[in-house]
Fold this protein.
Amino acid sequence: MTTRARRIALAALVLCGAGVFVAADDGSSTSFQSVTVRAGDTLWGIANTYLKEPTRWNELVKYNRQLGSDPTVALPGMVLRVPVKLIKEDLRAALLIFLANRVLSRRKDSADWVDAHAKMQLYKDDGLQTLEDSRARVRFIGGEVLSMEPNSMAILRPRARAKEGADLELLRGGISASRAKTITVSAIITPKTSDTRYVADLRDDLSTRVEVYAGKAEVEGSGTKIEVSAGYQTEVGLNSIPSVPNKIPDMSKLAARIAQSGLLVRPSDLRAAAPDAGKAPGILKPGTAPSASLGDRAQFNKDLKSLSIGVPITAYHIQASRSKEFDKILVDKTMDIDEDIDLDRMGLAAGRYWLRVATVDLLGAEGRFGSPRTYQVGSGGDVQSLLAGSGDNSGLSVYMPPEAGERVRTPRYRVRGRAASGMTVRVNGKDIDVDDQGSFESDLVLKEGPNRIRILATNVRGNQTDITRIVTFEP
């Protein structure tokens, strides 16, 4: 991003009065929260409002070179970088980084649920609620990320559970999380490794099921703690201790949920999770398809990260072409900074391409594209074969139902999958929405006995891929 674009983004933040996250750019591991100075505010006033110890106002000068040494001077039109460790707990923000369809939020001092919006700030004791067809993803100031599934309700950093240090209290439904600590009425889930990915569901009987996809998690119930490793699950009944961890019977289902949530892990993490974990959708299985050279893949991700140093952004707009002039654009995607961005999953055939990237700031404003650079994708063949589940190069992957079919005891069933860029999808003759990342899902009502589910995908050339799966309803 150019110097001019950075100044424009900074000015926009001042005008909207947002408190946003910024990464440390001084070589330290310090994380910051931006604080907007309002009319008449002084450094001393900011310190009294935001800092746990107002007398440490002089530390703000260290990270904000534009400040003078007089704390009583007004600071109109400034955005200050404040170390998170100094900010009062109640004023440490979380950011709603993604939402699909209608999501509701409720401030801690209000009883009313109102429409949430992307990039909104969420504070201690604020509520978040997803509806039947909606999802939400939240990033906390420390980097913890969690994704709320449909029909879920939660409280962020609940004051009533402050002593447990929870990032979220799940009141209904399910969540997928990375390093976030989750509390329910029956369980406390604490990630134990930096690569932990887990799913938690609060059931109607108030029991909690925890499935660990990668890393390890500590699960506590009625004062008893157990450690659950990747590929295993446990259940905690109300006022009960956790059950002995047992192996997850179908890792592909869990992988589908994690993929849908956007909390992907590296292929090596997945293969370590369970012996059959390589079958998970969206993850490269050893020897099944060519990949970009490690040098190019690493360089591409390094180049992406360099664009966000010292600049708060939320997404990358990526374009790819065979020519430096971009006279024909082959890939045009906007991807969240938390997504697993991989050259091999761009939907390109093997070869060398020119790529260019523009950043999207926290207000949704897009900057100019940077200078194009070349990268190698694959070494032969079609990288769409990386989409596991369909078993071919069609660009269509079906996560649920699994290829072997499935038996269920409830009449409602959700079909889930992913399609290549530009594809249209129909499930049992009904057009299905495909999101920006290619993911789709469709709810069906099953009749008793075997149900034939047909997923038909059509690409831009009119070529079709037809996958049929069987789900048997046994009430």
